[in-house]
Amino acid sequence: MKISKMKSIFEIAHLSNDTVRMVGLHGIGKSQVVEQFAKEKGFHLETLFLSQQEVADLIGIPDMKDGVTYWSKPIWLKRIEDAHKQNKHCVLFLDELARAPLEVRQAALQLVLEGRIHEHHLPRLNGLKTLVIAADNPADLYQTDELDPALLDRFGNYEVEVDVNGWLSWARKNNINPIVTDYIAEYPDKLHFIPEDDSDKGATPRSWSKLSDLLNNFESIDKSLYHSVIISKLGSVVGNSFLHFFNNYVKIVKPEDLAKWLDKEDLTTQKGIEKAAKKISEKTQKIEALAASELANKIKELGKQDKKWYNILTTFLDSINVEVFVSIIKTWKESNEDSEFYFEWAESVPGGYIFQKVLKIKEDA
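User: That's the sequence. What structure does it adopt?
Assistant: Structure tokens below.
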């Protein structure tokens, strides 16, 4: 399953008082998708890295009063209870479950099975339990232990894989350096790349995100260090490819390039747009489908801030492959986030040109 789909799984699991476990390669965004879900829903998120936990961290420590043993409340549970008092639903994220020491996994079993540890219970809000989500790496590829069948049976288990389009969408919203997103749009197979040579480092969505932070500060270091920094994050195979792309980035088509090329074109009429689109197609004829989609999405985001980009967007879309054009606008039309923009932009196009083109494409099909 594409990892971007997991937010819908979390939603239904929460409404059904179920638990979820994701299994996928390292660095593909398992933690990030949980964080996105909690942020978008306004839930409190409590993350426990179980591989680094001791039993006392998870369940508290024992104490005796009047001959009766009590267990202290762990700090993570207190934070959940504090959020519950503010009428917030909560997510408890158990990361690296299969890497946890045996005694920690056994303690987690009661937490998952019964929603409690000793006399302390995970809170409910409006009849809905605290949502428990776990994440693991595949046991056949990593040094992880097999989980107890009783523990596995309590989860809805999902194998997840990287989602290039989902990652690019996330990247645009989180200020990932445009050189990174343009490279991934051009070479989507490099988003998560595992080299055949075990001695070489691979690239993951996590490492691309960190490289973006470093690129934003490249001006403060000597250019002779660029290669070393890039290789340190991506490995030699992807790193050398990205460095070549980085050094030639001026040749990549950007929204600003389109605006410059179309500056003196008449984009107020259908005829003018069609003429300008032919001009653009000559300059972008080698652009790949995903790169075209990424460029269109960048113009769309600019259009949300300034409507002067509307006709530039129309012209660019008119210049690209028909199948790619249909895929892009279909995605926007059906998106909760972009549908409002889609209709406002499409209705602003001279003569309803976009709607006419869509209808013609359907008729021809």
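Residues 265 and 276 are 6 Å apart (CA to CA).
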